[in-house]
Amino acid sequence: MSAPTELIGILSETGKVPKRRLPDLDGEAFVELYRDMVRIRVFDKRMLALQRQGRIGFYGPVKGQEATIVACARAVGSTDWIVPALREGAIAMMRGLPLEFAVAQLIGNDMDLCKGRQMPCHYTWSKGRYVAMSSVIGTQITHATGLAMAAKYSERDEVVLGFLGDGATSSNDFHSGLNFAAVYSAPVVFVCQNNQWSISVPFSQQTATETVAVKAKAYGMPARRVDGNDVLAVLDVVGRAVGRARGGDGPTLVEAVTYRQLGHSSSDDPTRYRDDAEVKAWLARDPIARYRKFLDVEGLWDDERDTEFVDEVDGEISRVVREAEAAPPLDPRTLTSDVFARTDPRLEEHFREEHP
Amino acid sequence: MTPMTLLEGIRDGLITEMNGDDRVLVFGEDVGRNGGVFRTTDGLQEMFGEKRCFDTPLSECGIIGAAIGMAVYGLRPVPEIQFQDFIFPAFDQIVSEAAKMRYRSGGEFTVPMVIRTPYGGGIRGGHYHSQSGEVHFTHTPGLKVVVPSTPADAKGLLISSIRDDDPVMFLEPKKIYRTLKGEVPEGEHAVPLGVGRIAREGTDCTVVAWGAMIEICEKAAEELQKSGKSIEIVDPRTLVPLDEKIILDSVKKTGRLVTVYEAPRTSGFGGEIAAIVAEKAIEYLEGPIVRVAGFDTPFPYALEGIYMPDVRRVVRGIEKTFTW
What we know:
The structure holds 2 protein chains of 2 kinds. Chain A is α/β, with parallel strands linked by helices. Chain A has helices at residues 27-52, 66-75, 89-94, 99-107, 139-153, 172-183, 203-206, 231-246, 276-283, 287-298, 303-326, 345-354, and strands spanning 7-8, 81-83, 160-165, 188-194, 197-198, 201-202, 223-227, 252-257. In chain A, helix 2 (66-75) runs parallel beside helix 8. Chain B is globular. Chain B is 36% helix and 20% strand. By secondary structure, chain B is α/β, with parallel strands linked by helices. In chain B, strand 10, helix 8 (213-225) and strand 11 (231-235) form a beta-alpha-beta unit. At the A-B interface, helix 5 and helix 6 of A face helix 3, helix 4 and helix 5 of B.
């Protein structure tokens, strides 16, 4: 069992792919990966703008991490489970969460499936097996393990993708979640989006290990370290890890090395703690621009189609924002529902007294 | 009916549910081969196999985090935390995750799980094998909190807890695990959550207590009977949901209230019961409400007997409601 620290990549910086590494996909599938990434980027930009306009309270952008998000979503099937961290919301949308519901979640109105209970970007989508997350760092890691243990116990052919950031590798649940997963050989793939920053703390101050991947060795679990800005490489690496889990060979830790191009959230100013030079260097490795070069080389995409597609996505987002903003505010009575399956009569009485 | 200890009642409840529902899994530290450090799960691994009753690595946060994942999946996990004092590594999982999953997902995801854990003093366990942490959980909306005080209730409340669709903290009064015996119905026996019981009928003063304190209160009531005072003991059985009516009805009848609990007095659940009675039945009271509780100290080892409410202190507390 080894925990390689070698960075796995397929796409070169100029968009070239060695023939033997070219995934077995048809042209349309290659284009679809690109469309998925662009959709996320446009949505991200528009939602951040809504936040700046005061139309939503908060937003956690994912710019720069689209390749890992898209590749992971494409590496699993509809009966597999997604246990997200903060920057995987687009996977819920790729698994069918209607965009207007997603925008309503950011607003927190009657159309929001979470009924306005959580801050923006805390999506839920049970039909897509996308589990509602908390804001606590790392706690979802053990849930991913538990879901996988349950799938194994139930003898169903299901795999769990459990997400975390580099900061979460310091959490109790990282240790417990990986340890339990390995001990019970649970069908789970942990994907750590190492975007180099936990708000203002760099990866070098998060851990003294050189990589996230190396940590897997201590749990007796294989690991892969992949270029998280290379959609084809992530698809390949996560796809293999998912296959391994499905085949009964247990968990894998995947470290996707990427970069948070913007702040931690709309409330964060990253210029306070990181250098422009670093940001610029990573912008040059932007996952979408790089993959676009590949499509250009292969003759699968061009500027005209690009403009047309971005316009189409923009138009769709405008429509769903209108639709979500038109939804009514939450009925105050929903405050007391969903604490339990049946509302405690003492809570009902309290609410009636205060809001007759 | 079969005579059983409280511990055997719990085990019988587990067996009943494991027989009836293959979604029910029992796991935790030492619960498998060893049958639990108190032997509550003795023989379950042999009966149901290692897939349904198994040992875990020594991590409470791992046990509860994994159990939450299983519950979200659709199983009915019944994890054990060896002592309630060790639950705090899992506190984040219980408070931030299990308790809030239904609410935060608008009902899309739920955590039907029962966390069994021995709690309370009286076994010379010092700080870390004796505490009564019920208010940590009653103060967290989204958790049900169940405390049995008889073998039959131990079985019946556990069965209802496992069948419940929400996370339940099942606090087991370890002091009376083996000392308390009683008749337990065989097979199906579900005691509903949220329905208290009158442990002893009386007319002059209501004592509300739970878990191992019921036995102490019963002895105190016997003692007071000699001087002609008739004490009613109310066992709410479940602190959340709370059977407010049974408490208020009793106080309206007796005109007096004493709450008895092992936890430190300040912010204890007996204070909450006192507040409910003060808000809703103050006109019936003929004396002050009295709390007989643990001291606001860490739980002591050598001076356990000084810390814990005992018959003398309960008698004294009740008398205060008559003489003030």
